[in-house]
Amino acid sequence: MEQVDLIWHNGELVAWEDAKVHVLSHGLHYGTSVFEGERAYETPRGPAIFRHRDHLARLLQSAQLYYMPLPYTLEELRTATHELIAANGLRECYVRPLAYRGYGQMGINPLDCEVSVSIAVWPWGAYLGDAAKKQGVRGKISSWRRITGESLIPHAKAGGQYLNSVLAKIESVKAGYEEAILLDSRGFVCEGSGENIFIVRDGEIVTPPQTASILDGISRKSVMTIARDLGYVVIERDLTRSELMLADEVFVTGTAAELVALCEIDDQKIGQGGTGPITAELQRVFEGALRGTEPRYADWLDVVEVPSRASAAT
Q: Is 261 exposed, middle or buried (0-12, 13-18, 19+ CB in 10 A)?
């Protein structure tokens, strides 16, 4: 991780090395935290955070689902993120808002523990590797099933829930793959360890529905909009494991990974291997939306006023 100068913590900008929490914080022991993953990109209008308000709205919704009233409004968090990016002089960065139950009381009941909020930003390259966008990555069907709404809240982006993804990711990496694919409790395809999943077959695009225990991905919704704007049929329905193997193309979407093809699954080549033509087209337009070169998606970008290094020095 590339360190920057400042982190926003409970309303103040603090030095990176001073952004600390107590070892008895409730969130550390019990996973009582919610978070977001966002990216800011250099665009013709300057640095801009992709779908910033949508991400912050989901953060607030995740907190609500876990009975964590946040001490800041969406607009206060938006302004704080802008100030933080500007203070660090960044043109592109990953953005990590985090809300967690802090120090105060130990035990399962978290309600007497105050809620703290931090925002960190740092430069972060391609999550699945620089070559992944062209070559694709290899995926493995995980032996771990995705959490179900009967015991946790798949629609919330909550810290403790990600142990599920951690186990799947470790299993796939140890087996020599770049990514894991989790099935839901019924045995249908759910998502990757940190991405939503799509297949292309006979010119149509299919993705698992909300009822498959997926996270309601913001990149997922963006790519679905782009695909329909390009004239493709996009279908949300249950997806079987065998359909992955028979697909012409498979790709995943997420803030960290962006849009990347799966060229192999369980050692079986998908289609012709690599990044297929429809995936490549979606990837190109999505990249344009992220970087402000697709005018029809301009309202997805929240522009940040960041002074240049030169002007800051004078």
A: buried
